[in-house]
Amino acid sequence: MAEVKLLGTRGSVPVSGTDFSVYGGATSAYMLQAEGEVLFLDAGTGIRNVQAEDVRGDHIHILLTHTHIDHILGLPFFLLEHCIGKTVEIWGRSRRGESIEEQLNHLFSLPLWPAPLRAYPGIEYRFREVPEEAFAIGSFHIRAMESNHPGGSLVCRVDVQEKSMVLATDFEHGEEASAALAEFSAGADLILYDGQYTSENYEKHRNFGHSTPEEGIKLLRQAGAGRLMIVHHDPGQTDNMLAAREKAAGQENVSFAREKETVIL
Fold first, then answer.
1. Torsion of CA 8, 12, 18, 22, to 10 degrees
2. pTM of the full predicted structure?
3. Looking at the 3D structure of the chain, how many domains does it have?
4. What is the domain range of residue 162?
């Protein structure tokens, strides 16, 4: 059995309070489990929702879509709490001539952070470049395509046990970009799609690198996928707002992701 745990579904900045208790306030982090193997996708503040039983092995795999702060801010806390004495393999794509390790060091070093990741005791790091071609991490077969997002990001497809999911966070729709994503996502069991904006406020956020639920529904149909879940919720969207938008979608196989929800593929 393969399942996805939605550790953090908020975008841009974490939020808290009673108005955000249903859909959650932690930022982008997802955990894919299959037959005892675990793969983390992104390491926003939501990765702090990991339970000790989820990381029993001595080898941790993390695949980062990109290094914008809302997708990596939970990483040092996760490392210190769960990874001492373990090997941590971090996958990402080089940007602007910088490796994934160099990108992470921009944030996790002085003057913005007290200590670089390699200063954390007892952790062996392996930084890996996400290739253009398909690759595997254990039983997880992975393909990555470039997203339509300022500074660059990856859309990731993971196939395991004859099931498949696509993480299309930080993606902005457009004729060519959407057509490429539909082809990439063809036949997927689950698509996690960036729906940060509404159709009403999208125009003033054009070129910010995010999309709308309506575009996600188009993708679901064009890709012939099984299920769509909207992620990367705007920090200004309360539970009531998101619930109203979810109801308006009006499709059984379309939902808005909730923090700590588990989805069986």
1. -40
2. 0.96
3. 1
4. 2-264
